[in-house]
Amino acid sequence: MVEALRARLACERPETERRVRALASELGLEVQAEADLEHAVAEGGDALLLVLEERGTAEEAVPRVYSVVGANRALLVVVLVPPPREALERAFLAAGAFSVVEDGPALGDQLARALAAARRVADARAESARLGADVAHQDKLAAVGILAAGVSHEVNNPCAALQGNLTALREQLEEILQRPRFHRLDAFEQCVSEWLESLGDCLAAAKRISAIARQLTAYSRRDEGAVAQLVDLNEEARMVLRLVGKEVRFQARFEVKLQGALPPVLAPPNALAQVLTNLIINALQALEHRPVGERAVHLRTSSDAQTVLLEVEDNGEGIAPEVLGRIFDPFFTTKAAGKGTGLGLALTRQLVQRIGGEVFVESRVGQGTRFSVVLPAGEEAQAIPRKRSSMPPTSSRLCVLIVEDDELVLRSLERSLVKQFECITMNDARKALERLRADNHIDVVLSDVVMPGMNGVEFYLRLLQDHPRLAPRMAFFSGGIASEALKARIAATGRPCLAKPIDPSDLIKMIRELSTTTVPPLLA
After folding, report:
1. E strand or H helix at 67, and its extent?
2. Which of 2, 126, 257, 315 is the most buried (most CB within 10 A)?
3. Per residue in 42-77, pLDDT tens?
4. The domain 6-104: what is its CATH number?
């Protein structure tokens, strides 16, 4: 429900303005007078109503109302006319006015009726926006279905490399350890280069899996309230192709031509990935009636100084001229029942227009269809030089408390850090608090976020209360946080949070930075 409505007044006479303002105040309507009508229309802000006084002839007033309505369709234009209202009402309503009220004794009642109708419109708009966001999110999740096979392939390949390399490494180690001791050193020296190569492949495979997990998490996240940022369209295209590319290539010949060094685009996170996925899915569906060997999808990017262009073209059946004008209408689809919602292209256009771009379509029946997405180029962000942190010497044996409920992760973190630091590992936050009460030489605390019993934020709050000296020297790490409320609580602590899997060098650097954090005098 909309709690408060705001209006702008464009009244020719001061006495009219004072009267409307007084009546609006009685009705609970916030108003702002505007000397400049063009400003009132162009900079409507969060105003819903524009009360426009018209005292001229219909020939003079109607074109002005028509132009005002066309300039800002979000504003509901209430035209205030001298009596009799009936003489002008039909002409103003035909020009697009929301309501026509008469300047006279009944003005208060007429404004009240117009305001009640405006509230219903505002409520309907808010509900439509909410439903649109829900449907857009569901449509995005539905698109994940076509990603599943590609994702499975992308994850299973590095998993196979991990399993194969690690199994071979373990078998070779076991075989060497069964030899007489005086033979082991030679065997180790013969195998060490091969082992290093295998371990390098394992690390590369793990990074590939991690990248896919991050992409899917970002892709499925809601975009509500997301802040626009500079995005590389080519990188977004590569991300989508990593997820769907192999599956698409089984269904059609897929040709990609990405122009190097594209200007960035200012867009909400994952919006361009959603646009590209929708267009690829649409292209595949357009090819269903062609033999597999004849199917082709082309993806191209290009740019000039002001715009970035994305093109997705198929050689499917094409779109009939009588249908072409409706393909972006919500819920309009030519597909059989169960084959589509009719929302993919509508949402694609909505996303593109939110970015400030537009979608164009060219199609020839029997030859194919090309969708062209034109986006405004954003400005390159200027890099802000960062101050270099002064690191303690590597010989300093800082003591690090690591709290993590997953034993595999806990052991791997300890192995990564034990050469640099003294490590104390705990798999339970409550036990970690008990250890802290008995041990006062701990320098830095690392904690997982999602843990049974006591989560990382709760652990931090207890640390802040019982061990304030350590609170500024704590950091979180997490494999993924679904709860927006928990994310907000972590942000409120002001403590850093690293995403798993963690690069050991990044973790070591952060520990040394935390160890130099100055403890506020009140906490020392």
Report:
1. helix 58-71
2. 315
3. 555 555 656 666 766 667 777 877 777 777 767 777
4. 3.40.50.2300
